[in-house]
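Please fill in the sequence for the structure shown.

STRUCTURE ENCODING:
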């Protein structure tokens, strides 16, 4: 998946476009951000990358206490990648023209509220499966792919439509599609593709979130060969 998934007309007037930024993130940026997350004094829950300037901002999970200062640095100053992107996913474009990246490893639970939450979750599945260390379990046929044990479709007790992400670094992340109640960590996606993301005391307004529709998803999964 590339930045082409973001609707037309979201490119900035700078030489760098939204698509360029998303492509860089998938090529190397996410793995470089993962190094920042691994060395930060407290867990990082999200990053933003400003499209026009490349400025990267890292947001700790907590908002008060030692080690919770927001970190800002140029993309050129990010450390080189020393592993995979882990559970980092590109969510979409904020109202301030920055690409928002979420670290699911910092979120034991997250809800997606939308008329079709599967389209957003598919974008995350497609990104997460790029990391060979990650396995996904879901009880939704709309999210399962022919990737064997790397993306298992199974019954999950407790009800609700779930997506569970594991990379052998507990705790695993459970994403619930249209949970019954509101939580402190949730993504509310409107019909026009805009959204609001709430992570505890943090909030982002998004102009557009990444999503994969039925036809694109069918074409994508048809290219995958069943795996053990």
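FILLED IN BY: designer on duty
SEQUENCE:
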């Amino acid at each position: 998946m590339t930045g082409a998934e973001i609707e037309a007309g979201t490119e900035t007037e700078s030489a760098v476009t939204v698509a360029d930024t998303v492509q860089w993130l998938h090529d190397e940026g996410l793995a470089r951000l993962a190094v920042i997350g691994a060395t930060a004094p407290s867990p990082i829950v999200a990053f933003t990358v400003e499209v026009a300037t490349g400025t990267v901002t890292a947001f700790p999970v907590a908002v008060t206490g030692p080690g919770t200062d927001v970190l800002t640095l140029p993309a050129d100053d990010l450390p080189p990648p020393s592993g995979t992107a882990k559970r980092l996913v590109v969510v979409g474009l904020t109202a301030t023209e920055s690409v928002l990246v979420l670290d699911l490893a910092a979120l034991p639970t997250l809800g997606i509220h939308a008329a079709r939450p599967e389209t957003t979750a598919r974008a995350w599945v497609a990104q997460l499966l790029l990391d060979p260390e990650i396995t996904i379990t879901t009880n939704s046929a709309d999210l399962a792919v022919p990737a064997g044990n790397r993306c298992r479709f199974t019954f999950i007790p407790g009800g609700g439509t779930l997506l569970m992400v594991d990379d052998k670094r507990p705790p695993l992340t459970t994403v619930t599609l249209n949970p019954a109640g509101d939580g402190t960590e949730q993504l509310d996606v409107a019909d026009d593709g805009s959204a609001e993301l709430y992570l505890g005391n943090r909030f982002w307004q998004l102009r557009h979130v990444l999503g994969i529709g039925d036809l694109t998803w069918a074409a994508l999964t048809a290219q995958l060969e069943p795996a053990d």
